[in-house]
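In the current project phase, work has continued on tokenised descriptions of protein folds. One protein thus recorded appears below exactly as we store it.

——
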Amino acid sequence: MLCLFLRIIIGILRPKSINLNNNMKYLQKISALLICAIVLFSCNSKNTSSVSHISVDLTIKRFDKDLFLLKETQDFSQFKKEYADFLPLFSYKVIGLGNPDDPNYMEYLNQFLNDSTMNQVASEVAKVFPNLEEDEADLEQAFKYLKYYFPERNVPKVFAQISGFNQSVVVAEDLIGISLDKYLGEDCEFYSLLATPLYARKNMIPERVSQDVILAYGLTEFPFTPKTDDLISNMIYQGKIRYFVSKLMPGKSEAEAMKYTQEQLDWCKNNEDLIWGYIIEQKHLFNTQYRTIIKYINDGPFTPGMPEDSPSRTGIWIGLQIVKEFMEKNKDYSLSDLMKENDYAMILRSSSYQP
């Protein structure tokens, strides 16, 4: 395909007369187009060709809309039948109403449905998310890569929900619920009323939905089971999950995988040796104290102990760099092998990481 494409270009641009100036212009044009063609075809091969043969048909079911329609229909039996697989997860894990088979369940549910704030939230969700076509396309492609790397895994059913500002994404066996009320935009007045920190609101935007689904899926399906629960193991585990996200969503940037702005990612790249040096100097690398670990892992306005223009979660970013080095040096390791690997000290040694 690429060869044919290049022959066509050369045929179109071949000079009609032999002239030194014409030949120079001709060669310049050919060189520029060759570069463009190679980049175009290599990117296409990287991002789509390996999964083009895999069939995944993903639809995000609008549980959120159908739930609030119950105010009018009160046809709970039909609703319960349609969402038999997802309703228990939503009821137990998201809004805490308990067993949907309880004879008084509809009474409890009506309190949620008739809450004035929840109705305002449902109205705002409908405005911000009139449809979920882009997220469906992103997730469908991501789950094609899931089947490519993990053929034995099932593609989960995905549902949109309103959680009352609880979990952003809930994951159970072959089920995922996305709380759209957690992605209404950083300027959403509800987040101000809830006193949600500004740094957290930056990622409470519609553009984060599909990536947060894959991130939550990775964290749930590949839990943290280290040999030693120290800082470096946490860093590499969290880096491993971001590496997983990048492999399932190769069209996304490293900044997006990290939930960073480009400026935050640039800060990390420009100060990589200083971040690593600080952790070593503080003798935190093998520290097992929870309060020390979360300094480098948890979200926040910046990483405690580092300059205030640093982003939070710099420990995760360093973990991602270690994983990338490890995978580069261990070509025999598949993504599946990596996700099964819980010897984080071995990954560190084998990576020979040195910023």
Observations:
- Confidence is low (pLDDT under 50) at residues 1-18, 32-49.
- Strands lie at 60-61, 157-161, 169-172, 175-179.
- The chain has two domains: 60-221, 231-351.
